[in-house]
Specification:
It is built from twelve helices and twelve strands. It is an alpha/beta fold and 382 residues long. The protein has a seven-stranded mixed β-sheet, with helices on both faces. The relative contact order is 0.17.
């Protein structure tokens, strides 16, 4: 019986060709031809003010924390239902993390719960666009403006997804907050194995971002011929990916529309086949708010209980199909629970206990989706 993994990296066919070009160029250490090609691609396609490729989304978030001058006196508000990197980047700068609950109908942060958490020490709000679906950015940016706070978009999953405001406009996710971070990990829509990107949308960070990116030096300016020597001028780290990584990524970017089209077709087929079971009250399917588009990063279902989720996982596994849960609420994590203020975040916990992710990758077939949904029906109805 055919095995269906949860994820399978998709290769366009140009990756090794571009990697060969990068090697033959004689510059493979970073900030070379393919790094510039990728950064220009994002700036021109999505209108991002400035982009810097990084070795991971984690690194991009850590750069954001440095650029915001986060320190031990600061508090940062973010969802509890997220990956540990979202919090770690700010904990490393000494900040106190104030966790907010998810929405009742979606794992994204509940924008209505943010303002009561703001104190004189609050410096930033970090939003996570779960499954590539937009948070309520108009509401969140209004709160941030009112209280003079920074907004960082953790857009790790949000490539090629948009916020659609009441005015009918479409703004790419990652272009709305002061800073944003993307991931190109092998589980994402567009991949480079490991890789990420920092997006800078606020002019005040433009001058400093390259210095932080280049180990705290003004080396990038030196290579552009703007200064005659470079030195240590700020804190920073080695956040640049190699040209090998950037070359792989550029091959993926050339096929972005093709990849997105197929993923959306798979997502829509999952939804169509599972909708009758949702109508029967067996679980909840993903909700796409009116203010968001769908980039088909994740197809998930929210089961009625952890026991039901485990039953579905077991039946799928028995039939060589891998399905997985997702984040454990960070406010309950062994590392940070002692710092949480005791609030119950029931929606975050619900998603930790009940959310189940189904296989989603470019080479998944429509017959695979039919097989997966058939076994889900069997698990629930016998």
């Amino acid at each position: 019986m055919k095995t269906i993994p949860f994820n399978k990296p998709f290769l366009t066919g140009k990756e090794t060709e571009y990697i060969k070009q990068a090697v033959e160029s004689g510059k493979i250490s970073g900030n070379g031809m393919f790094t510039k090609k990728c950064q220009t691609y994002f700036e021109e396609r999505y209108g991002f003010k400035k982009c810097l490729l990084t070795t991971s989304c984690t690194d991009a978030l850590e750069m954001a924390a440095i650029l915001l001058d986060i320190n031990p006196e600061d508090e940062v508000i973010m969802p509890s239902f997220t990956f540990v990197s979202t919090a770690n980047a700010f904990v490393l700068r000494g900040a106190k993390i104030v966790f907010a609950d998810s929405m009742k109908g979606h794992p994204n942060i509940d924008a209505d719960l943010i303002e009561p958490l703001i104190t004189p020490r609050t410096k930033a709000i970090v939003v996570v666009h779960y499954a590539g679906v937009a948070c309520d950015m108009n509401k969140i940016m209004a709160i941030a403006s009112k209280h003079k706070l920074f907004v960082v978009e953790d857009a790790a999953q949000a490539i090629d997804s948009f916020y659609t405001g009441s005015d009918g406009g479409r703004r790419p996710l990652g272009s709305i907050g002061h800073l944003a971070a993307f991931s190109f990990h092998e589980t994402k829509n567009i991949i480079s194995g490991e890789g990420g990107m920092l997006v800078i949308n606020d002019d005040k960070f433009i001058g400093r971002c390259e210095i932080v990116w280049e180990k705290g030096t003004n080396r990038a300016a030196f290579f552009r011929g703007e200064i005659d020597k470079y030195g240590w001028v700020d804190i920073g780290s080695s956040f640049l990916p190699s040209e090998i990584v950037s070359a792989f990524l550029f091959a993926q970017l050339e096929h972005l529309d093709q990849i997105q089209k197929k993923r959306l077709q798979l997502w829509n087929l999952y939804y169509e086949l599972l909708k009758p079971l949702e109508i029967s009250g067996l679980f909840k399917l993903p909700i796409i708010p009116l203010y968001s588009t769908n980039n088909a990063h994740i197809f998930y279902m929210v089961c009625k209980s952890n026991e039901v989720r485990q039953k579905i996982i077991a039946v799928l596994k028995q039939n060589n199909i891998l399905s997985v849960f997702h984040y454990l609420s960070l406010h309950k994590s062994p590392y940070y629970c002692k710092n949480h203020d005791g609030r119950v975040l029931q929606n975050s916990d619900k998603y930790s206990d009940c959310l189940l992710r189904l296989p989603m990758y470019y080479e998944l077939t429509y017959e695979d989706v039919r097989r997966i949904t058939g076994f889900i029906n069997f698990a629930l109805n016998g």
